[in-house]
Amino acid sequence: MEYPILYSFIRCPYAMRARMALKLTNTKCEIREVRLNNKPKQMIDKSPKGTVPVLVLQKEVIDESNDIIEWALSSNNIFDGNIDHDQIDLTNNLIELFDSKFKYNLDRYKYATRYENINKDKHKKECLEILINLENLISNEGWILGSKINKLDISILPFIRQFRIADIEWFDKQNKIKGIQKILFNFLDSNLFKEVMYKYDVWEENAEPQFFP
Q1: CA 101 – CA 26 distance, rounded (Å)
Q2: pLDDT of residue 1 exceeding 80
Q3: Residue 199 near residue 9 (C-beta atoms within 8 A)
Q4: Per residue in 13-69, pLDDT tens?
Q5: Which are the contacts of 190, defined by CB distance < 8 A and separation ≥ 6?
Q6: What is the pLDDT of residues 69-104, one digit of tens each?
Q7: Cβ pair 105, 128 in contact under 8 A
Q8: CA angle at residue 67 from 65 to 70, to 5 degrees?
Q9: Cβ–Cβ under 8 Å, residues 98 and 155
């Protein structure tokens, strides 16, 4: 049987959420762990923009993480019924917010040396304000909108994790986001997170294939 091929990088939040969608829907693929400073030609040939994740199917290539999530859910929507119908728009709006404004500020806070004339603390504050606003929306049941994991969790928790990593001691002391901290720690302690963060060998041509999940 020929499986889809997933080009991935373990720490990339976009690749992380794609792996979670594939894991949760039990979609088996050949995983090719890459180094972002030495991307394989095979990946670039399939997706010239050169970012992960890239999912290579028999008749198409999907190289946006949100599209990979939707593709995986199209055959096995394991999130169906996990949130109320009136929360669907909220979910999509929050994913868009984190993909745009939160990620923009996160990059300029966490990787400030890559940019010119950057006020690192300003971008840190912008991210925190987004999280404080999110704090007012979250449930008290383990995941962001309820007792069951859904698309919102796998889409934005990898970015919140990155924000924490930039200054763990400071993040853990923020009293205005105690609920988010609790959900993030629940996520980091989950079997799902541990399984999608399994460290695969970096892919090399002619190497034995590695499979995920």
Answers
A1: 31
A2: no
A3: no
A4: 999 999 999 999 999 999 999 999 999 999 999 999 999 999 999 999 999 999 999
A5: none
A6: 999 999 888 777 667 777 889 999 999 999 999 999
A7: no
A8: 115
A9: yes
Nearest to 57 by CA among 48, 67, 49: 67
As a whole number of angstroms, the distance between CA 103 and CA 163 comes to 9
Cα–Cα dist 51/53, whole Å: 6
pTM given for the model? 0.94
> What is the tens place of the pLDDT at every residue in 115-155?
999 999 999 999 999 999 999 999 989 999 999 999 999 99
Output the six-digit token pair for 151. Answer: 């698309």
Pairing of strands 5-8, 29-33: parallel
Domains recognised in the chain with CATH numbers: 5-79+194-212 (3.40.30.10), 85-190 (1.20.1050.10)
Give the whole-angstrom CA distance, residue 203 versus residue 96: 32
Helix (H) or strand (E) holding 56: strand 54-56
Please calculate the CA angle 10-13-14 and round it to the nearest 5 degrees.
100
Gap between the Cα atoms of 88 and 94, Å rounded: 10
